[in-house]
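Write out this protein's structure.
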Amino acid sequence: PTYGPVLQLAEQASTRERMWRAKINEGGAPNLKLLAEITRLRQEYARLFGADSWAAFATRRRMAESPARVEAFLAEVKAAVQDRERQELDILRQAKAAHLGRPLAETTLDRWDVGFYTERVRRERYAVDQEAFRAYFPPQESLQFVLRLVERLMGVRYQRVEGATAWHPDVQTYAVSDAASGAPLGRMLVDLYPREGKYNHAAVWGLRSASTALQRQPEAALVVNFNRQGLTLDEMETLLHELGHAVHNNLSTVRHVQQAGTRVLLDFVEAPSQMLEDWVYDRRVLALMAEVCPACKPVPDALLDQAVAARRFGQGIFHARQHLYASYDLALYGAGPQDPLALWSRMEGATPLGTVAGTMFPAGFSHIAGGYSAGYYGYLWSLVVATDLRTAFAADKLDAAVGRRYRDTVLAQGGQRPPQQLVRDFLGRDFNAKAFYAE
């Protein structure tokens, strides 16, 4: 809740640099030592099963099926975004030169400048200030809005459980039921605001998974850290993304716990959440806010149009960075032993902005120490799937018939069928990357 706004808004470069270095060095040398040990042990484990690397062992039961297929996919992504990345970085460097009154030839763009000048360019080019959206998205009403969206789209109902106790008084509990039959489906707990000692990112935990065999209903915890004064459009997108994970948990109707909700192949797990992110840019969808908050001012059409246009800027930089993270993760867990920091320095050093000496990003790259080891590519892979899933809603993002079909053929199935089959059942064809590359 602090790092992002400081990197985007702090005028003093020295302030941004201090914050950036503090974040990039989280974990420090002890974590680098642990990461090296983790990679070594996973390599040993994979070889016990006859695999030549942890990457080969891990991907064999994912959509991608092999490191070679992941590498081919990442090569396609790089080819698609690298020119766009360089163009956008040039624009940011020009913005920095103009802002500081320096000749362009004497201006260098630093890592801690990227967020600041991206936001500045968006404001200057598109007259979009993310902070301006807070007036239109009060936090509690924003939660009610996204719940109403899912109600309309997927035929469910959310009822707040008054007096329910949880780990903090801020936490809200909702009973989830089927709108048509009234049958209970599960529960969701929501923790909206930052506080000392709380997890400081955004995530959903499946506290309990569904099982029809055990007549067991699911329960998920949605945890974010939003400003009590309101949400930006980016934060609204984050809220919808995380709600997508909670919905995946809550609407699962599988027989076995181990196949319930988000217990799907790793490179598919983000797709249902990433798909929903696009809904906040639709004017008809945002009109649902009036149903839950008649007193809330609607987002002006011009502001939304500008935000849609501004959204495209920075995508080259973003996807190039995601490509780097995924490529590093795959290389770290490849056949040969690697020093985590040396590998990162070499790979980041080959990017247009290079690497900053003395920094230790891998020490805080918790995804690859945990469940996303040899799997960080899944964010990009599942985004391809999500963008393709979204094509079914192209005519109307509030189409309840399509939404119900999506609920039944994708979300309700959890991991009891391969994701390729779930997508085929929903779209009527195999998924492809056409929509992703077009976007």
